Amino acid sequence: MIIDGYKIALDESKLDEMINNQMTDVILIDKNFEGYKSLSEGDKKSLEHLVKASKIINDIALEQDHPLNRQLKKGLERASETNEHAKKALIIFNSLNGVLGLNGIDEKPVKIFENIEEYAGHNYYPTDLSADEFHNILFKMIERGEIRELKNILSARSMVRRKNDELYAIDYTEYFAKEFSEIANELELAAHYSSNKEFNDFLGWQAQALLQNNEDMDMLADKHWAIMQDTPLEFTISRENYDDQITPTIFDNEKLVNKLNELGISPTPKDMLGARVGIVNKQGTNLILEFKKQMSALAKLMPYADKYEQKIDSGDDIKQTMVDVDLASLQGDYAQCRGGMTIAQNLPNDDKLAIKTGGGRRNVYHRQVRMSGDKEREKKLLDALLAKEFHQYYDREAEHIFTIGHENGHSFGPDSSYKIALGIYQHIIEEYKADVTSIAMMKEYVKSGIISEDDLKKIYVTWIMRLLLKSKPQHIQPHRIGDLMHFNRLLRFKAIEINEDGKIKINFDKIHEVTYNGLENAIRVQLSKSPTEAKKFIDEFSTWNDLHKHIAYVLLKLGIKPYKNIRMFL
Ligand SMILES: [Zn+2]
Is a pLDDT exceeding 80 seen at residue 48? Predict the structure, then answer.
């Protein structure tokens, strides 16, 4: 089957296998959902427009991710009206939300079409631009004093293109002018109908930010978004920069970094957009707020707490809102299910102006994502890899509590200037830090009576089982590299052991100490501001040997379901 000159690389039987045996549904809410039925009529109408806006954002993310995405998606949609092969390929396209992507198992990306390439700079940069050429062009621009254009090229919100031997940048508000204006319209309509003033204010700012080439507008929209704690509806435009692998190469080039520093230019990787729409779940939100109350006390227990300024000072000043959300739509970055889906997300990230100018963060937990999963497979996994006496402690809700600790963990530690200085290693170290903060601090939640001793064991065991990897992780997967490092450290310091049957045994009384020391290491690396130190730490603990291969083999044999079918009804 050929679509617009590109042959589908996966034959029908392969696609059948992927769809029937390797795919899980993530079922979002529909009109029969209680939380939907109890919304006011205005909020229901508002939700409709927010869902429309989210779908337009998906087109933008497709364009940012790969130059062929939009064209070939349209081609697949057309062909699938009459052709089964195209229809099946479209299902996998929608799971990856792109023409290619990692599936979390294979080291190479799954490619839906033959003869398509993966690009380090995605579609943000010219596809034939190498890191060396990129750096050379930047040096020339510095020599010529083209400061304003340099800033535009190295901004998080521009698409970069060639003009002869040079590069120039197009701000997102120009490159995506048509889409941004349509989204702004939908947001204004949503604000017209919605019942909540705070939410409407945010939507107004967000709409304006889409219409103006002005980072300050994003900052204001982000600040209004981050303070929302008590609104019926949830809407987010996410901007995260994990995908771009070209901009971060600058941090490996010391001479270039120094020159840019002198000029006051801080290169930022390009943002991939995502959109999330939902209804805030009151009960789930209340549980999360119980954990929040502990944060200022926990900040004092952080390693090297006297060596940097704590962002969290006193209980009332914690600029962090948190909500548990029933999801109606996931689009763009959120729907690129390339090895998993995120179950919670704390935004804005450190590179954003809102954070740099003292704005807060908002953390949103994804109920429908965390509730989707394969119970039968979990049971088989325990039988294969965990010593029997620990099975009773495996519990999915315990993972949710770990996640709350992880997300809160991002709010502890040295500020963003320390993190960013670690260059391409910053995300690995930061995710690693958030994980060990969560685990090392769990004892404190027992002390304050929020969780029981039994819960603590469940959290430890469930976390450790979630560290097991289906394949050797790559640097583009910071969470997975972190998982490998935790596993190796726990093993080296005997918090876990492999028993004579080849199964994992857990020494509960060592977990706290080993993870707290890991946290100490991570903070030390961030305080060093040294990519070399970061690399040393990562290399030391991310070795991949026969034990890991064995675990990966067992996991694969259990049958992994890496592909997702996000079912939307609103
Ligand atoms: Zn995280």
Answer: yes
The reply to whether 569 falls in a domain is: no
CA of 485 to the centre of ligand 1 (A): 15
CA of 427 to the centre of ligand 1 (A): 9
What confidence category does residue 425 fall into, taking pLDDT thresholds of 50, 70 and 90?
very high
Q: Do 107 and 207 fall into the same domain?
A: no
Ligand 1 mean position to 345 CA, how many Å?
7
pLDDT band at 311 (very low <50, low <70, confident <90, very high): low
Task: Give residue 188 CA to ligand 1 midpoint distance, Å.
Answer: 32
Ligand 1 centroid to residue 271 C-alpha, Å: 17
Q: How far is the CA of 180 from the centre of ligand 1 (A)?
A: 28
Q: How confident is the model at residue 51 (pLDDT cuts 50, 70, 90)?
A: very high
Residue 522 domain flag: yes
Q: How many CB atoms lie within 10 A of CB 36?
A: 18
Residues 362 and 253 in one domain: yes
Residue 36 has pLDDT above 80, yes or no: yes
pLDDT at position 561: 87
Domains of the chain: total: 4
Q: How far is the CA of 399 from the centre of ligand 1 (A)?
A: 14
What does 138-199 look like in DSSP terms, one character per residue? HHHHHHTT-HHHHHHHTSTTEEEEEETTEEEEEEHHHHTHHHHHHHHHHHHHHHHH-S-HHH
Can you tell me the mean pLDDT for 333-356?
92
Residue 39 clears pLDDT 90, i.e. is over it: yes
Q: What is the mean pLDDT of residues 102-131?
A: 95
Q: Strands of 361-366's sheet, edge to edge?
A: 233-240, 272-281, 320-332, 361-366, 344-347
Between the CA of 407 and the centroid of ligand 1 the distance, in Å, is 6
Residue 199 forms part of a structural domain:
yes
Return phi, psi of residue 184, to 5°.
Answer: -60, -40
Specify whether 109 is located in the same domain as 252: no
Could you tell me the distance, in angstroms and rounded to a whole number, from the CA of residue 388 to the centre of ligand 1?
31
